[in-house]
Amino acid sequence: MKVSTLSKLFAALALAGVASHSFAADTIKIGIAGPKTGPVAQYGDMQFSGAKMAIEQINAKGGVDGKGGVDGKLLEAVEYDDACDPKQAVVVANKVVNDGVKFVVGHLCSSSTQPASDIYEDEGVIMVTPAATSPEITSRGYKMIFRTIGLDSAQGPKAGNYIADYVKPKVVAVIHDKQQYGEGIASAVKKTLETKGVKVAVFEGINAGDKDFSSLIAKLKQNNVDFVYYGGYHPELGLLLRQAQEKGLKAGFMGPEGVGNDSISQIAKEASEGLLVTLPKSFDQDPGNVALVDAFKAKKEDPSGPFVFPSYAAVQVIAGGIDAAKSEDPAKVAAAIHAGTFKTPTGDLSFDEKGDLKDFKFVVYQWHFGKPKTEVSPQ
Questions:
Q1: What is the pLDDT of residues 110-126, one digit of tens each?
Q2: Fold topology of 3-149+307-345
Q3: Which of 97, 150, 163, 182 is in the most buried spot, having the most CB atoms within 10 Å?
Q4: Would you give the DSSP letter of residue 22?
């Protein structure tokens, strides 16, 4: 087989998403690490969908110029399942290192992202998380860790200020799932509410995986709670919403982006109506992203999830860093990412010294059962 024919065959395989280990040396591997299994695998679907679409479209345009030459190198997706479990995330991170992968989109849950990031920083692997919002992840002076989403230190005040200024409840409860993400965002909301003079009558943790919230609901009723903020993920909040409605708790509810997907309505049914959620902007509604939205729909993939576009942007940032550095050396690429600005479907992204976005705004949406969510943030 002629060399030119072989090259064309490889390009066709890569664009079709077919793994070809024989040509691994000719590609730049991008690890995608997140939950393919477990209770929040729906969010992993968003992450893998967005990242793989970016890889496919970058490859279709000729790949990434990693050595200052004319011909680009194609990107190759390497998928890892951490199930949003911290221990499994450490196993995954070590496998990423052993596989020789130098660039990672992930992880997703803050509790698994933080221990994985320790390994990546030590081993010289660039990690760009499109979903982990805990401030602690980027507060340790690391140079290889970035994110294409905002922080709970911004999301918490956004929620707390909205509750105080627009909902104006009489008695508030703040509940969390005792995990890094859930408790962290709940604490930020509590602090904001108290700063605004709103008393938090109940601040309590449940256990991730709990199914029966009878005692919690009884406590909320006893305290005459009329508004509940929940820090955590949709499986527990969905059950809490449904059981609260069944037991006659007359209260509004709000949660972070970890509850913002259609599964909340599948679990809570009509009880999900009116739920308030802080989310990234609906980038799929941006007129400038119509062609990309159509590309997702052509593959029968939903572009509306909160982590789809940030995951796409994460790949673009990595590819743009490689182009800017004219090198695949992660240290040089990290320096280029810190110094650069990258045009993505989520906006022009630039990073501070910690690897956080210099400007990211969360939006408050109201959930509707059987209908699209609506933005309720003040303009």
A1: 999 999 999 999 999 99
A2: Rossmann fold (3.40.50)
A3: 182
A4: G
